[in-house]
Amino acid sequence: MVLTMILIPVLMIVISTPCFAALKIKLGVVTKPGSAQNIVAEKFKALIEERSSSKIKVKVFHSASLGNETEILQQLQMGTIEMGVITGGPFDTFDPIVRVVNYPFLFKDNDQADAILDGPLGREIFNSLESSGFKGLCFSENGFRNLTNNRRPVKTPEDIKGLKIRVMASALHKTIWQSLGANPTPMPWPIYTELEQGVIDGQENPLWVMEVYKFYEIQRYMTLTRHVYSPHLDVASLKWWNTLSKANQALIQTAMADAARFQRRDNREKDAARLVLLAQKGMEIETQPDINAFRAKVAALKDMELYQNPKVHDLLIRMIQATR
């Protein structure tokens, strides 16, 4: 009887402990070490390997070694790689639902972006992506995007007219800059050489990009437009995901969510110092552009063809209502 009483609790512990199968995960990003995508990818690698007692191993393929973001998404669809940390823009050629997140001047601040994207409306986006072969895990961030150029200061939309601005491979981002009077030029990452040689006049990205990629060396003017909040979609191949045990799925989901929260906090804590650094490096920073004028120029986008898919339009309207 005593032996039975001792064995039963031990057996219960063994049975209730999750069994993590050995896995090797290839995770693709297009940016170099130290960049926002890489920070969340490396944090995820550290967390998942620790929590699985190294049964799950992650190899981060950085600096576009697996191709550009569209090519990484195609590989995820096929199941030839397992995971990716991808900017929102390139998704809209696979599922237009992602255009909702990139709608200009949608979010007031970081807290609002987190509340919406981590809630039911953000989950709707990930649920929709499953029809294209992606398992959405969580949102980390690129951040609020700002304009830089090497031709003139920009305070109003009129100052943008004719500027050749690099944009992501995204119909929405191209339309945003057309509405503002620029000449948008889709171009894969990286773009330092094109900026340096004057192939393009400028680009738009969060502050960390200006620092990590040293755009202060080749871009004189920056305007804090904060025109789009740019998340990263941390995704897995649905084809691969469906082969995993429930225990492995739960572990991966939790580790990526923790990594995303870590990266968002880290990115935001560094932004004030980045502004100081960029000014010290010689960039002329317009901190108070005429945001109302910019917003007015793009207000009609919600009624354009880009958002006329009923599912997309419905979610956009609900997203706008949730942020007002």
TrEMBL record:
Protein name (database record) = DctP9
Per the record, the domain of life is Bacteria
One Gene Ontology cellular component annotation held by this UniProt entry: outer membrane-bounded periplasmic space
InterPro entries (UniProt xref): DctP_fam (IPR018389), TRAP_DctP (IPR004682), TRAP_DctP_sf (IPR038404)
Pfam assignment, any one: DctP
A Gene Ontology biological process in which this protein takes part is: transmembrane transport
Per UniProt, which keywords does this protein have? Signal, Transport
What family classification does the UniProt entry report for this protein? Belongs to the bacterial solute-binding protein 7 family.
